[in-house]
User: What shape does this take?
Amino acid sequence: MTDDLLARHRAVLPSWMPLYYAEPIELVSGSGRRVTDAQGRSYLDFFGGVLTNMIGYDIPEIREAVERQLATGIAHTSTLYLIRQQVELAEKIAQRSGIPDARVFFTNSGTEANEAALLVATNHRRSHQILAVRNSYHGRSYAAMGVTGNRNWSASGLNPLQVAWLHSGDRVRGLLARLSADEQVDAAVEDLREVLATQTAGDVAALIAEPIQGVGGFVHPPDGLFAGWKKVLDEHGILFIADEVQTGWGRTGEHFWGYQAHGVTPDLLTFAKGIGNGFALAGVVGRAEVLESVPAISFSTFGGNPISTAAGNAVLDYLIAHDLQANAARVGAILADGLRAAVGELDCVAEVRGKGLMLGVEFVRPGSSEPDPALTNRVFEAARDGGLLTGKGGLHGNVLRMGPPLTLTEEEAREGLAILVDAIRSAAGVAA
Ligand SMILES: Cc1ncc(COP(=O)(O)O)c(C=O)c1O
Assistant: This one.
């Protein structure tokens, strides 16, 4: 019984771990892009467990790869022993990363991946000064939280790093909001120079940035901004870390990695979520000379274990064989165009944004840039009532987020689009 489970959840799990929906749901089975809850209600899933069920539910190739590994009797060995699946996956990721002479270190979560990236960057540069971006989210450990620019997720002021903050690519509010794309790039680069000169001791270790800010409501800077930043970083020898936890593996449709929209190559790249399609798998890729900057033993008991890397290999092979990046571009365009046409002009919609199958709708009070989280929540609940799971996000909780599995079909995209448009129109009180 869900009600009973909810009471038990509340009695034993911490209240700061949020549950979606006024009446939270328990998902008990799934297939393809659809899930069923404990009440037998079925939903089309446009959030995929926060962009993590990247291929979808119950995919035979992934299930069979994991079952084959389980059948060997070995679920775990520790990384003190050779793990064939891990080496194979590292080879594939290194080759696809775009980073020359790449090494891969596997972890269990995006938080740990960013923690590892920050460790090697600070060691490599012998500096604990970091540049981070406002409205970012990088994880829940001290260092990852320390570079997170979102008050809602900043549970502690304790920070092992010294952080200076850059502007995000927010087009709705903030100092750079209403500039043209070129002006925004120029202003952001000028801001970086000023931040370096005024808020740091010069010898900064790294800049960490998400190509599209996930938790931040799919805010992203104009293409090319990272190149403007990188030019300045290179003048100072500062490393660039691309957090690809949400944007990786072709989700943006146009590229395999989000950073590629900017014509730069990062020194370090972190990945998580989708590569395990639900199995705990994450990591950091970096140039050997940077990633080798660990002057002590460092290992992760579970990182890159035989089960998760069996899944990871199957996920990556499936993704490439089915060219899911192209699917993300094609099906994402149906969703984005459909949303823009149907609700883009409503005065409660500030922006329909994102790339590929990573799309957000930002809601404001009509005719202003004042966030409207209450309306967002009504849309969110109405979509669920209509049989569609979505996500929420943004600094003000006023962005509806869509990050469906990359296997989403055109029919499913149209079906979800219709539910979304109805939900937005009914919640906003607009006649159909
Ligand atoms: C961009 C980004 N980085 C890092 C993380 C942290 O990943 P995890 O929750 O696996 O620790 C997240 C999680 O949402 C994320 O979106």
User: Anything to note?
Assistant: The CA atoms of residues 52 and 274 lie 4 Å apart. The first strand starts at residue 27 and ends at 31. The chain has a mean pLDDT of 97. The two ends are 36 Å apart (CA to CA).
